Structures
1.
Amino acid sequence: MRRFKGRYPGLGSLCAVALVIAAPRPGLADCGPARLEEVRLERVTPEGDLVLADTRRLRLAGLHLEPLSQEKTGSAPWPKPGDRIGIGLLDADRDRWSRLAAIVFAMPAGEPPVWLQHRLLEHGAALARPEPDLGDCWPLLTQAEAKVRGKLPDLQVEPGRFARISGRVSRLGDGRSAHFITVFGTTGERATGLIQKRHLKRFSEAGVDVAQLRGQFIRMRGVRSTTNASIIPLTSPDQIEIVR
């Protein structure tokens, strides 16, 4: 993926353990870093984080795993403790749980590498979650999710948590500093996407004309406001998917 270029601090020092990995299947060749660091997996946590043998802890970039049952997650094709995996870090910074965001490839012996995020979405064991630096990987993740979307309900969650809402845009509002997109979800819940006007250029450059969304069926993804659970702040065009 082009947007990964130059985002691996110290990558030169990892040349001895870095691998050049071919695309795991047609259509994924342009997604992900050209080089991956080969590491050993220590374990997968109940939350879906990957703990490495060198003690680093990774989260799977572009996925939301929290609402999934242990049964479904347990039946998904996770790598096993001791397995080799290939990782490409999106950023050198850790989150508040000391996790690094990564694109991860399982590397079964004698078989082509498998993009773990894509495989988990295909199995219905995750939801696609937009975030910075996914670049060309993002549409591939949503395409994988779409294969099983009918089996995955939208998330109706409390403030401060990730939500996915699908529905028709019933109202557009133009405030002093922000635009508002009101959606009545398929589950009967109303949610409002809030786009600060300083971010509008990002949406227009991505082909999302906010002023023309009324009446369209869309899917919004984002973290609900902690002060008003009906509000989902939208800062990236990846958070809006125009379905029809």
2.
Amino acid sequence: MKYYLVLILLSFYTYAAAQDCDQAMLAKKTGTWKAGLKGSTTNVSAAGLLKEKATLASVHQMIGANYQPMGCQLLYSNSFSGYNAAAAKNWIADTYQYTMYILRFLCDQQSADKSKYYVDISTSTTVTITANTIWQLNNLFAADLPDDDFRGYLKMKDKPQWKDGLYYMGEEVVGDGDRENKMKEYRWLITYGEQLPFSYVSRKEYLLIQKKRLEKTIRDDQSSKSFYDQYMNRILDNLKKDEGELNAPAICMWNDEEKFTGFVKEGTKGSFFAVKPDLNYYDKKLSRSAPQFFSVVYRISHGDPVFEYNITSIQKAVNFSTLRNMLGKEPAKTIIENAVPVKPKPVAKKAGTKKQQQL
């Protein structure tokens, strides 16, 4: 009898192992963490690098304590960069970034063994948490624009919205916008209170920048003068307007910089706010390794259940209050940089208590 039972169990095991790979089942498979290749490190002091690594390790542990990857390998890495004279001047704080890549488990259709699966080799679904830089704002650093900046200001698509103690920087379709399941970015900014690390360029400032640019264009090519005169005249007419109007934020059309046709209302399709770094935001007594603001960006290719589940779960694990409390501070001790985070075990429920401790 035992012999037949063993045969039945063995047959069941062989059948189960030989089943075709099921993508839906892979989506429910417990995922794994993996440290990626070490990111770049440029112009950062040895002492500062240790502190920055410890800050990002704290971010890593915060997420891992409240999140378990599912149906994917979670690849993570860090990068660090400091002073770069070509990118900006008057540097106050280094840039450093923690990045998570969601690599799905996928059935291997090329294998003769139809039960085989592999880890995706690339992904467009990522999470980035960056200290002291906003990449989506034409690279706003904790520094002034360089003197030879080709534009003289930065473009910001949406005005930040203050929500629950931090700024929502908006969402945007990126990549192929014609697909049914669009790739989108959702952006947040954690700052000192309601302060912002940038200020709005006034209409007067913007007009003077464009005037200077057009003057150079005309000097370099006199044959273009008759064409550009119409835009120069429009700039001069706008500069005659009253002070209140000229002090308003410059809201302009995206492709209308050298052909100024007028300012537009907030929310006009294809418009942007002109902004510039505001160094008054920063505590200049701090070392360059201290985080003075965080930018958080969720990038997801919508429509895939693995991407949807993991991004939603990571959003719940990223504690904005914890990040806010890290601003202006440097870690007292170094945390292991690439330690795989371990989700804590639930605390046993005490007799007589009605509520279980929330993890």
3.
Amino acid sequence: MAHPLIGADLATLSAVFGDAGRIGRRGQAAAIWGAALGRWPATTLERLWLSRRLPRLEEMPPPIFILGHWRSGTTHLYNVMVQGGFGYVPPLATGLPWDLFGIGALARPFLDRMLPEGRFIDNIPVTPTSPQEDEIALANMTPLSFYHGIYFPRRFRHHLARGLFFEDCTEAEVAGWRETFTYLMRKLALHQGAPLLIKNPVYTARVAMLREIFPGAKFIHIHRNPFDVFVSMRNFYRKLFPVMALQPWEEVDIDAAVLETYAEMMRRYREETAELAAPDFIEIAYADLDAAPMAALEQIYATLELPGFAEAAPRFEAYLSGVKSFKKNAFRRDAEVVEKVQRAWAPFIEHWGYPIPETA
């Protein structure tokens, strides 16, 4: 599989490579730069062609955003809910966000064959119509993405702080991110032709900004047992670094990064959603979605006052039946993990009422 940055533009590559230091995988780096140079004329033409065709933000139906820390069930919820006929982020838009209507459309049969059978981190099946989070697309369009920390681990903490929380970013940098984000949303709206359902864990810490950009947006937050989230996030990074890192990554303190990121993300999330309520906001537990998915979906539709649950129910049931045999990753929670998580995330464990696991 090609490196995700194969779909980036020259300006983004100049920014992140210029800041990265020594690159280890020079062959991959050369391929990334070569792809950007080769696509540049077509990318420019696509931007010109779309300049008068993209809808204005105020013309778009406000999106629905699925929030939740990574490994909390956001992907499963997204996969199920898109069966309701929402617009979403297809793999093509993730890999080639600048070239969705041009090169991407022409090369789609070839690109579809390049997709892995399943995600690296959890083996969830990937098809040409599998909904994706837009963060990898945004990492191809702007230097403000936490994924650049995975691509360039020598600057891991730098990219994590800037790409998740805009720490130490100038007003111009944040404004540039917003412009790129809204450009992608408008592009997806034109491509999908339906109200957008967007899943991105990063947005869990950006609710206020999203409400400012899309005043009528609705939000679904899904939470999961924090002890499971921690061990799954260890696996997330340990799987992605060997595949995506262009530099040595062994010195990254994964545990510290997970503990600090979760705490700050949830702090911001709780602060920025404190006054949100139905029909604009709902919070559900992954355990409830897993145990009784149709009841959870009906609750989401009713709380957010979304139309079409009865018509979509057969499609929901068909999808859920198709993934019944999927085996979730199993992780061990030892005493050290339980102690670390309990100490760092106590306010959130207590807030959602999760029990402290017993350990040998």
4.
Amino acid sequence: WLYFYRPNLGFHSDRFISNQALWTLAGLPLLFLFISLIAMNRDARLSKYQTQLVQSMFFWMIFSVLQILVSKDFRPQSLITLIPSLSFFITHFLLLIRRRKFAEMYIWFLVLGTVIISYSARYNLWSGISYDNLLVPESKTSFEGKRVLALDSDYSFYAHNELASPFLSWNLSKEIFGEPGYYENVIVVYRGLNSDPPDIIRDKEDQLKPFLEQIPKLKGMYSRNGIYYVKNSVSN
């Protein structure tokens, strides 16, 4: 319930891009989608089979929006499920245009507009668009090539190192390390660190200390050095 069901029942997600940036990037395709829906509703003369396809793609679009809302990480790639329905409706809109030159103008406007907006955002020409949260920041530590564990949500520590222990996701692990009074949590920490012991543990809040007091074997394996617990064999 704690690790598999409850995290998927809410609408909370980690946001890696702002709403302003997302609307800027998706503004032109959404404009074409809006025009396409209006044009198809007004001018399209569809057979029964075509009508069923339109209804199917409309439901696809609705469920794609729901999937984005319940997604646990919100980033531009989350919108990929909208691409089939977006392509379907825009293609039908272009096919409704009787004059070829106007259809080609719309196609070039969509393609070039999307490319220009994307590349200008990539090279920071739009002040409201930032991809900083999509990139792992450079680690400022001197540790490289070590087997490490970070007891916080800053994953830059793993950039030039290797994960050790099963506690990668801090969102799942913080409830364990935050409750050292529960015997079950002590057992989980012991098994995780004993079966796959890290060389370096970054612990800014010293949340590991009460567990080490209850687990003499682990206490003898590590020494405190600033915000780190260093395995004795590594420090020596």
